[in-house]
Every structure is written in structure tokens, then in C-alpha cells.
Amino acid sequence: ARRDPALATPAGSLYRFAESVRELTPHTTAFADPSQRAEYAVICPPNIGHVIHYVGQRATPADNFGPYAGSRWFEDVRRFYGRSGDLPAFSFAQQVGARYVVTMDFGETLPGTLGRRLHADDGRAVGDAPAWSHFRLIHEGPRGGMALTALFSRTGSGMAPYKLYEVVPGALLEARALPGTPMSAEVTVRTSAGRLFEYRTRGLANANGIARVRVPYPTEGDAPTRTLGPYVVQVGAERYERAVTEEAVRSGAAVLVAP
Q1: Residue 171 is inside which H or E element, if any?
Q2: 135: helix, strand or coil
Q3: Tens digit of pLDDT for each residue in 186-237?
């Protein structure tokens, strides 16, 4: 009797997630006045677009009408989830005026694609795969809810049904080092569902002796998903701890790690 009955169905779980989108993102005037252009878009898989519209009250580049509503973005949005690079995905989000991206549990996804790198890997560097540094997790859930894949399979993946990412330039951690010196940064993130993961990224000093890595999370504030402590930065054999401000993440500013 204490459990939300909506979470017992895939449709109800999607409804609850869309309510979270409405709560955690800025209001747009276009929902109440369709003659106005929305201040920003939310990229989502087209098959959940109507729910993001009418429950989340946010605009999307493509939705359940597919190509039949005259949207030139439908195929581009479908391809977006198969993109294999952080920068191309970031560029497309800027092209369509998207401030947020929704990912969902599709079951098995292709390695290296956005669906795998963001939804399954949280955008962190895994194995040889580099970090996705322009997308920061805002929310995952609903906790205890069901993914749409439950309509076709009883086997759960254990992942959150949905995740909401914000598109950000990302702060640039910068240090001087001999060319080719490895640099890495790592920070613990606690999600809105209470899950912990280590966001990590890595790079190498360039020929000019400058090492840079980009990070999407600030180390300040009380957002539902936030870091626990400063970034631990390794430059060669040297170890540093550095804080990153919200302003640096939003502006893409450089944060000096070592002179």
C-alpha cells in the first residue's frame, strides 16, 4: 500500500520520470503558447516524445509522430543515439538547441554508442573508451520503476529506466607537463537515486607541454546528483586535488591544476 502504483507498470514509470523532467528543468513559455519558440529542447528517443511534451511540458526535436509531422530532425535524432563520440553528440545538441538529453534502458546496446556510453557507463572513461565530458547526469529513475523493455522481456538490466543529462561545455583542468605525460581526473558522484560511481577522464600533455582534461561536474552545490569532494588529478607522478565551480562548467573555463 505504500508503493506508488505507477511504478508497477512501464507506462506509469515513464509518466513519473517525465514529471521529474518538468520539476528539474527550467520552465519554457512555449508549452502554454505554441506560437512561441521554446527556449531550449530536450532530446529524447522519439518513442517517448509525447510523454515528454505533455507530462514533462518540454519541447523535443522529434517525437512519436516520426517523420509524419514534417520534422526534419526525426532521422537525425535516431542517429544521435548511435553516435560514437562525445564531441559529435555535443555539436548536434547545440545544433538543435538542446539543453538536456534523455537516455533510456534499451536493453543491449552497441559498444561505444551514446546509448551505452551515457546510460550504461555514466559517461566515464571505461577501458580504452574516453570519457564523455559534455554531458552531466542530473537525474536517474524513477527508483523502483520499470523500463519500457519490460513490455517485451521479463529480464531486467539492473540499470535505471531513464536518465536525464544536461549538455554543458565542461570545465577544462589544465597543467604543464612534459609532452606525452599522462593526466587523469577522478571524482565520486552520488546520483539522485543514491547510487555512487567514479567519474574519470584522462589525457596526455601535448607537444607544447600542456595537459588538459574536460570535466562536466562542479564540486559545489546541492543538486540531486552531485560530487562528493574535489577532483583527484594525477599529472605524471604528481597528485593534486582541485575544486571546480558551476560557472567553470557552464562557461568551459580553464582551471589551473599545476603551474
Answers
A1: strand 171-176
A2: strand
A3: 999 999 999 999 999 999 999 999 999 999 999 999 999 999 999 999 999 9
Confidence of residue 1 (pLDDT cuts 50, 70, 90): low
Q: Is 57 exposed, middle or buried (0-12, 13-18, 19+ CB in 10 A)?
A: middle
Separation between Cα atoms, residue 182 and residue 198, nearest integer Å: 19
Q: What one-character DSSP code corresponds to residue 116? A: I
Dihedrals phi, psi of 241, to nearest 5 degrees: -125, 130
**Verdict on whether the full-model pTM lies above 0.90:** yes
- 3-state class (DSSP) for residue 197: strand
- What are 231's three cell numbers? 577532483
Q: What 8-state DSSP symbol labels residue 115? A: I
CA distances from 170 to 121, 154, 198, 226, 249 (A): 18, 38, 17, 15, 4
Residue pair 22/57 in contact by the 8 Å Cβ criterion: yes
Tell me the torsion sign for CA atoms 245, 173, 189, 191. positive
CA distance 189 to 124: 11
Q: What's the N-to-C CA distance of the chain in angstroms?
A: 59
